[in-house]
Amino acid sequence: MERKILDNIIGWYGTGAILMAYALLQFGLLAVDNIVYQILNVTGALGIVYISFKKKAYQPGILNIIWAIIAGIAIIGIILSSLVTQPLKPL
């Protein structure tokens, strides 16, 4: 029973994180190049992937794997961009 509750928490987190990311973007509180926006997207997508495959609902699972990959690539781009504009200081 506890495992089922945890599964649902993970799935609902995923849904909430993606909705929160979208709402914050639409209301101008975050931009697409904001790492928080992309972290909400990648973790939310992974939460939906988890619950989708757990329930054998493969279409939303595949969609969210792609969503997570896109957000992951964006995170890498944001990190690399910040390293270029603000190089690491020597110790």
Overview features:
3 helices; transmembrane; mainly alpha; 80% helix; membrane
Kindly summarize this structure in a few lines.
This protein is mainly alpha-helical and 91 residues long.
Can you give a write-up of this model?
The chain has one domain. It starts with a helix and ends in a 6-residue tail after the last helix. It is mainly α and 91 residues long.
Present the secondary structure layout.
Blueprint: H1 2-26, H2 35-54, H3 58-85
InterPro entries: CBU_0592-like (IPR058058)
Keywords: Membrane, Transmembrane, Transmembrane helix
Protein name: CBU-0592-like domain-containing protein
Strand content: under 5%
Compute the average pLDDT: 94
Gross geometry: elongated
The string of secondary-structure elements, in order, is: HHH
The domain tally reads 1
DSSP summary, beta strand count: 0
Poorly predicted segments: none
Class inferred from helices and paired strands: mainly alpha
Largest beta-sheet details: none
Question: How many DSSP helices?
Answer: 3
Bin the helical content. over 70%
Over the alpha carbons, how many angstroms does the gyration radius reach?
Answer: 16 Å
The N- to C-terminal Cα distance equals: 51 Å
